[in-house]
Amino acid sequence: MLLTSFSFINHSLKSKQCYLILLGVWAGFILGCDQASGSFRDIGSLSAPIDSTHEGVPTSDGSVTTREAGTIVPTVYYLPHYSSEPTKCNGRSQDLLTKKGVVLTRLCQTEIDNCVLQGICQVQDGDQLINIGFASQSAKSGPRFRTVDLSRCPYGYGVQEKICLDPYHSVAADLSIYKVGDVIYIPAVRGTLLNDGTRHNGYFIVRDTGGAIKRPGRFDFYIGTDNIYDTQNPFNRLKLNDSKTRLSFQLVVTSEADAFKKSRNYPNIPPQK
User: Fold this and answer.
1) Of 49 and 86, more confident
2) What is the dihedral sign for C-alpha 66, 56, 160, 133?
3) Sign of the C-alpha dihedral computed for residues 29, 30, 32 and 38 taken in this order
4) Measured in Å, how far apart are the chain's first and last C-alpha atoms?
5) Which residue spans within 200-259 are E strands per DSSP?
6) CB atoms < 10 A from the CB of 6, how many?
7) Sheet holding 128-138, edge to edge
8) Which residues lie across from 127 on neighbouring strands?
9) How far apart are CA 188 and CA 195, in angstroms?
10) Of 32, 66, 75, 128, which residue has the fewest beta carbons closer than 10 angstroms?
11) pLDDT (tens digit, 9 = 90+) per residue, 6-38?
């Protein structure tokens, strides 16, 4: 989760302005009221493009009740992989400690800093592969970490240990605004070809949070072990790694949200092939 500060948007409810929205695709009209301050606008039933030809997309009668929430401010985070070697960092590697002071492994300070930044890292320590999650930090003791159950959550824990991170289908969000388990839909992501050969359906589950994830629409997109610096990464091609990117999103509030969570085996992840 990127620790970059962003200005917080004042979203107190103030004056409202009613208007007609022309939905040309469906040749219909919806009368709505806009919150002039930029907060959520309830717009009832929208015909969001549900298409069962894309893997994991919930099927329905074609309509999705959503709450349109404006535009996203995106960033991308990932699961970095490191090796623990005595000769690294000119012999100045540092211990990664649990809250109880147990040594998990040793890494360079810059690598430890990135483990904190991303919230998770993967370390090859001899013949042992360790998934390590960030647990806490204080000025006195520094960062503390915890191990992750690879058999259940191979890509790490979300905001709670019972919630697994699901690459390309998880986001970190501001939990003062969104709930863990909320489902968002981003039309521009739908149909994106992923590295495993499947097409994205545009849906994401809120499974995580972060210190700089503040304000409505501020989402951090998780890509697992894929290279965050690869310009051909599907999310980088969509510029989700650029906080200046603005794409519309909707908060799904009906049975389609439950159907999508079931398709992703929430709070776990789908069985690995």
Assistant:
1) 86
2) negative
3) negative
4) 27
5) 203-208, 218-222, 248-252
6) 14
7) 81-83, 120-125, 128-138, 142-147
8) none
9) 17
10) 128
11) 333 333 333 333 333 333 333 333 333 333 333
b/e string for 26-47 if b means 16 or more Cβ within 10 A? Answer: eeeeeebeebeebbeeebeebe
Residue (of 130, 93, 125) closest to 110 by Cα position: 93
For residue 26, report the phi and psi dihedrals to the nearest 5 degrees: -105, 5
CB 6 within 8 A of CB 214: yes
- How deeply is 73 buried, as exposed, middle or buried, from its count of CB atoms within 10 A (0-12, 13-18, 19+)? buried
Domains of the chain and any CATH numbers: 37-77+158-263 (2.40.40), 81-147 (no CATH)
Amino acid 224 reads G
Positions of E strands within the chain = 16-23, 28-35, 41-46, 64-71, 73-77, 81-83, 94-97, 103-107, 120-125, 128-138, 142-147, 170-172, 183-185, 203-208, 218-222, 248-252
Structural tokens at position 127: 């013949």
Report residue 55 as tokens: 């893997």
Query: Residue 126: its pLDDT value, please?
Result: 92
- Show the tokens assigned to 189: 């992501």
- pLDDT by residue (tens digit) across 178-210? 999 999 999 999 999 999 999 999 999 999 999
C-alpha Rg value of the chain to the nearest Å: 20
Q: Contact, 207 vs 220, CB < 8 A?
A: no
115-118 long-range CB contacts below 8 Å, 24 or more apart?
Answer: 115/80, 115/143, 115/145, 116/143, 117/1, 117/2, 117/3, 117/77, 118/1, 118/77, 118/78, 118/79, 118/80
Reported as type and span, the H/E element at residue 235 is: helix 234-237
Token pair in block for residue 266:
């929430």
